[in-house]
Specification:
The chain has one domain: 3-Layer(aba) Sandwich (Rossmann fold). By secondary structure, the protein is α/β, with parallel strands linked by helices. The longest helix is centred in the N-terminal third of the chain and has 13 residues. The chain has a six-stranded parallel beta sheet with strand order 3-2-1-4-5-6, with helices on both faces. Helix 5 links the parallel strand 5 and strand 6. The chain is built from seven helices and six strands, in the order E-H-E-H-E-H-E-H-E-H-E-H-H. Helix content is 32%, strand content 18%.
Length: 205
């Protein structure tokens, strides 16, 4: 089994997340993709984040109907900051015969060395880096500088369409009463409206 792991706040999940997952599923020949919503993202401490239950529910709605997609809620159950390396260690221990591939956007490469034990992440799993079509080759120096032997064999570049979705822009549009149709799945949009999400967020308007 080859399983992709896509982490994030997913506040809210949008079509950009789903497209990234599907591209990597196909290009990296993945059997499944696990969406892992963060409970307490260490890089967003002190910021207002939608409650875990709501973000998890929206993800479940977004992946419903795709048997290759699933939601892993382990990080939502933690009260302490969630680190990618801890989740990957757990997954490896639970499924020792599975090959895991961590999925990330090319824009995250620059910050990768600041993550907790990034070199260990490269040793634990393969990494698929997604860039938009038309963008230049990513700067691999942050990865190269980690000192992991044969890191090139652990990292794969995936090129996707030049589309741009933004969770912060979606929150802003909801707060302004604007349409988010075609930016999030219809079921997610309904959930946002029915539960009044983002209407009063400090970063929503």
């Amino acid at each position: 089994m080859r399983v992709g792991v896509l982490g994030g706040t997913f506040d809210p999940v949008h079509f950009g997340h789903l497209l990234l997952a599907e591209l990597c599923r196909e290009e990296c020949r993945l059997d499944r993709v696990l969406f892992v919503p963060a409970g307490v993202p260490p890089h967003k401490l002190g910021r207002v984040i939608t409650p875990a239950a709501a973000r998890g529910a929206m993800l479940e709605l977004a992946v419903a109907g795709n048997p290759a997609f699933a939601v892993d809620r382990r990080e939502l159950q933690r009260r302490d900051p969630c680190y990618t390396v801890d989740t990957l260690r757990e997954l490896r221990q639970e499924q020792p015969g599975t090959q895991f591939v961590f999925l990330m956007g090319a824009d995250s490469l620059a910050d990768f060395p600041t993550w907790r034990t990034p070199a260990e992440i490269l040793r634990l799993v393969e990494v698929a880096v997604v860039r938009r079509r038309g963008e230049p080759e990513p700067d691999w120096s942050p990865v190269r500088g980690l000192g992991v032997a044969n890191w090139e064999e652990r990292v794969r570049l995936v090129t996707g369409p030049a589309v741009d979705y933004s969770a912060s822009e979606i929150r802003r549009r909801v707060g302004a009463g604007a349409s988010i149709r075609y930016q999030v799945p219809a079921a997610v949009e309904c959930y946002i409206r029915e539960h009044g999400l983002y209407a009063s967020r400090p970063d929503a308007g």
